[in-house]
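User: Fold both of these, please.

Assistant: Here is the first one.
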Amino acid sequence: TFKEEWNYVETITAPAENKKSVGKKKENAPDQILAIRTKIDEAVKKGAEWLKAKAKSTGGTGESGLIVMALIQSGVSVDDPDIKKIYAQFGKGGFSRTYDTALTIMALETKYLPIGQYNEMADLNEKDAEDAIRKKITPEDLQTIQSAVDFLTRTQNKDGAWGYPHNNVESYDY
């Protein structure tokens, strides 16, 4: 089972001082790790294909932003044809919803963020991220982000929130 496999991975990767409490190392550890890694890779690939199919029906909304961020984080290249199609839809119909607009900005940031250069996201500081994005961003994507920022600025309430009208009742996002 997956739980047994995971426990085994913990056993063979635990620091030496913890091995007594975790279990004993088995001789065929590399083969078992490879088998688990293969299963994980297959599951990620299957999930990415499902997300790509789902993105075809979203039409560039915030949902597409979440999808493209998940795909890139799972290792799909920004040069993948399906990813390019998703990005091409961002901002095409203008902006009319705060959440979708914010996700568009986040998805475009993800496109240019040099995630692969870092072992941990914590190692990526804000200045390095900003510098990397500025060096690579296209004029079209910069214009999309500027349009999104203009929409957010224009629709922000005096108290700093954005409203979400629902059934003639205004709710807020601070």
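And the second sequence with its predicted structure:
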Amino acid sequence: EKAGAEHMVREMGIQRDVLFLGNQDCMEELLPLADVFLLPSSTESFGLVALEAMSAEVPVVASDTGGIPEVVDHGRTGFLHAHEDLPGFVKSTLKLLTDEPLRRAMGRRGRRVARERFSEDEMVGRYIAVYDSLRTPQEDDERAGGEGLRRHVADRRARLGDRHERSTERRHIE
């Protein structure tokens, strides 16, 4: 696919406008330089790369497959199309490239969504909620750090304390 894209770029005479960078280690430095992020995947589990682009205030034009629609809000943080809808991808990309206020607004909204809905605290909270919803009442009581365990430890201490007090009283009586 890359070879075909490179050939097309040469045929169109736009080599000065298109860069094929290959694998990169510092995407967080490169992403903010982009005007639009294209993700025409036929399969995508979550869309982390779209989320990274949104974090860099880059609007996303992506396939409406897998978990991408959970990340990209069509018309607000980018555009979604069927992965085989090349005319749709072209139309949305050209719209963003020719409408700077729209591109900037979508980029800002994308960054806000990435920070609010997908922050570390938010995601940890979601995972905890899922785990909590799957636990049984018995697991609740046995869970380390849970109220059930605290109750168990307090009861045990109380019983041990009572025993200690009774044995001390007996010694004083004898």
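Residues 33 and 58 are 9 Å apart (CA to CA).
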